[in-house]
User: What shape does this take?
Amino acid sequence: MENKQKVIAGIIFVIVVVVAVYFGVIGNKNNQVGNVGQSNNANVKEEEKTVGEVIAPNASPIKEGQVVTPTGKPADNSAVPGSENAPAQSVPLAKEEVPPTAIKLEISTDSGFKPNTFTVKAKSAVTLSLTGTDDQVHVLRFDDPSLNAVAIGLGPKMTRLINFNAPQEPGEYTFHDDVPGHQNLTGKMIVK
Assistant: This one.
């Protein structure tokens, strides 16, 4: 009985996260819509305004080859998704708005992640976009705890991106769709 309650609690947690992501609560905390390189958050002091290049609205900026928070501190890939130190995902975008330098993935429940493998350079800033090609909700999450904050949540036929710093350690980092019933949709990031 206790295991059944844990499963139900886990499903409820994922549903709450998916709904929050869909409505822009998680991943949009940085409130960077507006002028590139500036924050609209009135509580941020003048000297703490966003520094670096903003690739897409609400996505974490990139400064000197590293993904940073709006205050210029390095983004923490192991933070809680949506927290102020975590890399932030963009608002929903048109596919045409995704920069040509981004790693572009698509997902559907029928075909999974396409492509399901990509390669990045260790310690580099990575721009990863995800487009849902079906009428389902999807949440890309990495399995390694060091990439806990790297998450992209999508509503049906939506596109979003996230900027994050590639791990320092070369290796293979698996990811999956974190929506209940979609965990068999998997992929792999190779860090060289």
Notes: The CA atoms of residues 109 and 181 lie 9 Å apart. The chain has a mean pLDDT of 82. Residues 2-191 form a domain with the Immunoglobulin-like fold (CATH 2.60.40.420).
